[in-house]
Design goal:
heterodimer; A: 149 residues; alpha/beta; Rossmann fold; 6-stranded parallel β-sheet; 6 helices; B: 221 residues; Alpha-Beta Plaits; 5-stranded antiparallel β-sheet; 27% strand; elongated
Chain lengths: 149, 221
């Protein structure tokens, strides 16, 4: 396994999730480009972040070319707009032939569309919700939960 | 036909009105509640409030019964997803997407949405090629922009007025495909004499459009 190989990753959307991923990947020594339509979004990148920043609309081909998406090993579409994520992920996979594409599912009700369009979607809301529920289940005394049906 | 129009207010309104007047069934989908209320009052169409790029909305609107879906929201990404869903999930035979970014015509095509309308490209072509020629009354790019179809009115001072089509010395890669003269349609041949007032339907390659136009209307002032 080439676990230590440096990946070139394009992260689309520099909100809470995008900036978190970019900061972490950058610390691990990967090369990165982060794309966001709002210049102020890049304020969320840490002082240690050593990648590039591209300001622009990620559904625009010209912007994605500037971000060198055609050279990427991994693209993460992490904006807060499901349709932007769906479109960017499809451009990455089908037009730029990026080998690995991941997309954030913003609205859990839309996970089906991601599947339908063949996109690997991850829904932070569902993951966080399940963690809450299991934390709650663990905190409730066993006997109280068992007799009620 | 059962036509779905997703997004857009004014455009949805006028498109629906046109389709309804021609006897088609129309369903309008919009995610803005107040726009839906206005459209419902003004139109004799089914109006569905919801996000047209969401499976649940399209199910509620019974999109599987649609013959055509037109996605006319102001956002290209929304129009793409609407058309993809309509086509892959609801098996709608005809989908058409409005695109703002002219590069998206190609992007959409590669993502299986073949029918797009780029307003930017259309307006740019119209302005560029019409400027200076008030004889050109209509122009549309066809065949993915590789052919131009233009309608031109011949004026009194046209260099070809009174000459036959053969004598008109039109450039290569250009064809006068039809003429309407005082409302009567003519399919012209070489010996057809061109008259002032004739409406010519001109088919050209984009590169020969300028030379053809100059041959028909004379040099630009």
């Amino acid at each position: 396994m080439e676990a230590r190989a440096s990946l070139f990753t394009v992260v689309v959307g520099c909100g809470r999730l995008g900036s978190y991923l970019a900061n972490k990947l950058s610390l691990e020594g990967h090369s990165l480009v982060v794309v966001d339509i709002e210049e102020t979004a890049f304020d969320a990148l840490s002082a240690e972040y050593s990648g590039f920043r591209v300001e622009g609309d990620a559904t625009e081909l010209a912007v994605l070319k500037r971000a060198k998406m055609d050279k990427a090993d991994l693209v993460i579409a992490a904006t807060g707009d499901d349709n932007v994520n769906l479109m960017t992920a499809q451009i990455a996979g089908r037009i730029f032939q990026v080998p690995r594409v991941l997309a954030r599912i913003y609205d859990p009700g839309r996970s089906e569309i991601y599947r339908e369009l063949g996109i690997d979607g991850i829904c932070p809301t569902v993951i966080a919700g399940d963690v809450f529920l299991s934390a709650y289940a663990e905190s409730v005394p066993r006997t109280a939960g068992e007799d009620q049906s | 036909m059962n036509i779905f129009i997703v997004g857009g207010e004014k455009l949805a309104y006028f498109l629906s009105r046109t389709f309804v007047s021609k006897g088609h069934r129309v369903t309008v989908v919009n995610r803005d509640r107040r726009k839906c209320e206005r459209l419902a009052r003004q139109l004799s169409a089914t109006v569905v409030w919801g996000d047209g790029s969401d499976v649940r909305t399209l199910e509620e609107a019974e999109a599987e019964a649609a013959d055509a879906v037109l996605a006319v929201t102001p956002n290209d990404q929304d129009n793409l997803v609407i058309c993809q869903l309509a086509s892959s999930r609801f098996r709608v035979p005809h989908v058409l997407a409005l695109v703002n970014d002219p590069d998206h015509e190609e992007v959409f095509r590669r993502l299986d949405i073949k029918a797009t309308l780029s307003v930017t490209a259309l307006i740019a072509t119209l302005i560029e090629q019409r400027a200076g020629f008030d004889e050109v009354v209509n122009l549309l790019p066809a065949g993915e922009g590789k052919l131009n179809i233009a309608e031109i009115v011949l004026k009194e001072d046209s260099p070809v007025a009174g000459r036959t089509l053969r004598e008109a010395a039109l450039p290569e890669d250009c064809l006068v495909a039809g003429i309407t003269r005082r409302g009567e349609p003519i399919i012209p041949r070489g010996p057809t004499v061109l008259e002032p007032g004739d409406h010519l339907v001109l088919v050209t390659l984009p590169a020969s459009y300028g030379p053809a136009l100059r041959a028909l209307v004379g040099e630009e002032e």
